[in-house]
Design goal:
By secondary structure, the protein is mainly alpha-helical. The protein contains eight helices and three strands, in the order H-E-H-H-E-E-H-H-H-H-H. It has helices at residues 2-11, 17-23, 30-43, 69-111, 119-128, 134-143, 148-158, 165-172; strands at 15-16, 46-51, 54-59. The chain has a three-stranded antiparallel sheet with strand order 1-3-2. Helix 2 crosses helix 3 (30-43).
Length: 187
């Protein structure tokens, strides 16, 4: 019955003798349970409340510990601090998870067996694909709205030179040729 008295203090709600006997899984008969509860009430360990013919037993409220106001304030502050830290950590976790997804996406081509493309190979690919050279793009940007004579003067002032036939032949030669297939394998 000492465990049931402890249980009453922990739960802090009223129990009838039938409830206590049921909680004890029938190990103690209901009549005996009622007598034991009445004896505990007489000792002052629990409080007996009678409503009509039914008696209920409650933990003695005077013996229950209370939390002082300053301790309660301290606990509330600690709770708010922990919630703020938790929010920050959840934001960091979300950010880190997003970074992991981005890095994993960058690994997909390598995992599929695609060859690694170096910076030099990228330059060769750009040259072989027939993209506009930076010089020609700059020429069009700088001289596009000028009359032809002024455009030539501007090019001379800026020191811009065009590729000769020798340069064009070299770009089309084996040094700049793309070897093998650059297409990625499909899964």
């Amino acid at each position: 019955m000492a465990t049931q008295d402890h249980q009453m203090g922990v739960m802090n709600r009223p129990f009838g003798a039938v409830d206590v006997a049921a909680n004890l899984k029938g190990a103690v008969p209901k009549a005996t349970t009622q007598k034991i509860l009445v004896a505990l009430a007489e000792k002052g360990e629990i409080v007996q409340k009678t409503y009509g013919k039914t008696s209920f037993f409650v933990a003695n409220q005077a013996s229950i510990d209370t939390v002082p106001a300053d301790k309660l304030t301290e606990l509330e502050f600690e709770c708010k601090t922990i919630k703020a830290i938790t929010t920050e950590l959840e934001a960091q976790i979300a950010s880190t998870a997003k970074g992991i997804v981005q890095l994993t996406d960058r690994l997909v081509p390598l995992r599929s067996g695609a060859p690694f493309v170096s910076a030099e190979e990228l330059i060769k690919i750009d040259l072989a694909s027939g993209l506009v050279s930076p010089k020609k793009g700059l020429h069009d940007l700088a001289t596009g709205s000028l009359p032809p004579q002024e455009a030539e003067m501007l090019l001379e002032d800026l020191g811009i030179e065009f590729d000769t036939t020798e340069h064009k032949t070299l770009e089309k030669g084996p040094l700049c040729a793309v070897h093998g297939s650059l297409k990625r394998k499909r899964e």
